[in-house]
Write a structure and sequence with these properties.
Layout (H helix, E strand, L loop, with lengths): L2 H24 L6 H22 L4 H13 L6 H22 L1
Helix pairs in contact: 1-2, 1-4, 2-3, 3-4
Length: 100
């Protein structure tokens, strides 16, 4: 993969991670995850695909984040998994900022 392509994909992944963090934080408001979860789960899955393509060292964390985004639909467990997912996304953002 060319360096410019990898950098562009890393930038796209960084923007998606910011969207995921925003969705998790919006989801902490009661019943708001019904709305924000409709775009957090697809963004997390897209992030897994991009991380697999680029091989930038964030694949494991993005897989964890995708699982947490799906598990966060469970009502009682949702708040904990949303906080954990937001933390994982922040870690990914810090890692991706070095690569962009």
């Amino acid at each position: 993969m060319q360096p410019s392509t990898a950098r562009t994909l890393n930038l796209i992944q960084l923007i998606l991670e910011i969207g995921i963090v925003a969705g998790y934080l919006i989801g902490l408001v009661p019943l708001a995850y019904a709305w924000s979860g409709t775009w957090v789960v697809p963004l997390a899955v897209i992030n897994v695909i991009i991380a697999a393509l680029t091989g930038n060292g964030t694949l494991m964390m993005t897989i964890i984040n995708a699982v947490l985004s799906i598990v966060s639909w469970i009502p009682l467990v949702g708040y904990v998994t949303r906080l954990a997912g937001a933390a994982v996304s922040v870690i990914n953002i810090m890692n991706l900022r070095r690569r962009v």
